[in-house]
Amino acid sequence: MSNATVLDTAHAAMMQHPEDVQLRMSFYAILADIEVFLLLDAEPKAEMIEPQIIEVDGTRFVLGFDSAERLSAFSGGPAPYAALSGRIMVQMLAAEGAGLALNLEVAPSSIMLPHEAMLWMRDTLKASPQEAEPAPKRKGGLAALKSPDIPEVLLHALDAKLSRAAGLANVAYLVAKDEGGMMLAILGAKEPAQAPLAKAASEALVFSGLEDTSLDVAFFNDSEALRAQFARAGLRFDVPKPAEPASVQIATPGSDPAKPPRLR
C-alpha cells in the first residue's frame, strides 16, 4: 500500500486526541484542500457524474479516496473516477444529501463522514475574509506594526495554505497591529489572485479554531523597501514560484468551482 499521506497524519492525530477541536479542524481543512478521487459507476459525461454509492443506516455515502492508487486498491483494479478538489466535492455532496466514505478499507484514515459533516464544511468554507486598509494609510503607518504572537496552529495553517498558492504572490508577512489583531501582508499578488488568497487566509483562521483572533489581509506591490520594513516586524512566508506550464487539457466535471458536478 502507498505511504502515509498528509490526510493520514491529520486523521491519526484527530483520532488520538478526539477532544482536541483544533486537530479536528485541521483534518477538515486538509480535506477541503486536497484532491479527492470519487469512484464512479461509469465514465463522466459533460457536467454529470455517476458515483458509486453505498447506503448505511438509511444514509447515502459516496466513495472517495485521497489518491488514485487507493481507489484502484479498493476497486481491485482500474475503474472510472472523477478527481475533484475537496471543496467542490463538499458543495456537491451537501447539495445532494450524501455523505463521504473516505479511504474505505484501504488506509488508516478510513472514515465515514455523514451528510451533516458536508453541510458543516460547506458553511465553514463560506467564511468571508475582512481585508485591511493598506498599512501606510493606517495611523502610524508601518511603524505601528509589530511582531505577532501567533498561535502555532495558525502558523501551520497559514504556511500550508500559502505553500499551495504557487505563483499567486511573491511573499507574505504576518504582523501584529498596534490596535490589536493581526494582518497578513501579501506582496506581489495580481488583482485576479487577491480574492483567492484572502479566502485562503480566512480559511486558515477559521479552521484553526481561534474564535477570538482577528486576521486582516492587505495587498502590496512588491519592493525591496517594503520587504525590509515588513521583515523588521513580521513573520515571513515564502510563496512557491509557479510550476512550468502544463499541456492544455479539456475541462472535466468539477474543474469549475462555480459549477459543482451533479450526481446522476
Task: Describe, in short, the structure shown.
The chain has 264 residues and is α/β, with parallel strands linked by helices. Helix content is 35%, strand content 22%. Residues 246-251 have low confidence and may be disordered.
Give the topology.
Blueprint lengths: L5 H11 L4 H13 L1 E5 L8 E2 L3 E4 L2 E7 L2 H8 L5 E5 H11 L2 E4 L8 E3 L1 H11 L4 E2 L13 E2 L5 H12 L7 E7 L4 E6 L3 H16 L8 E6 L3 H10 L1 E4 L23 E2 L1
Parallel strand pairs: 2-14, 4-6, 8-12, 11-12
Antiparallel strand pairs: 1-4, 1-5, 3-4, 6-7, 9-10, 10-11, 10-13
InterPro entries: SseB_N
Organism: Lentibacter algarum
Pfam families: SseB
The CATH superfamily title of the largest domain: Uncharacterised protein PF11572, DUF3234
Provide the structure class.
alpha/beta
- Give the number of helices: 8
Largest sheet data: 6 strands, mixed
Shape: elongated
Percent helix, as a range, is 25-40%
CATH fold naming of the largest domain: Trna Endonuclease, Chain: A, domain 1
Primary descriptors:
elongated, 22% strand, six-stranded mixed sheet, 2 domains, 264 residues, 35% helix, SseB_N, 8 helices, SseB protein N-terminal domain-containing protein, alpha/beta
Can you walk through the features of this model?
With 264 residues, the chain is an alpha/beta fold. The protein folds into 2 domains: 136 residues, Uncharacterised protein PF11572, DUF3234 (Trna Endonuclease, Chain: A, domain 1), CATH 3.40.1350.90; 104 residues, Beta Polymerase, domain 2, CATH 3.30.460. 35% of the residues lie in helices and 22% in strands. The chain has 8 helices and 14 strands. Strands 1, 3, 4, 5, 6 and 7 form a 6-stranded mixed sheet that branches. Strands 8, 9, 10, 11, 12 and 13 form a 6-stranded mixed sheet that branches. A two-stranded parallel sheet has the order 2-14. Helix 7 links the parallel strand 11 and strand 12.
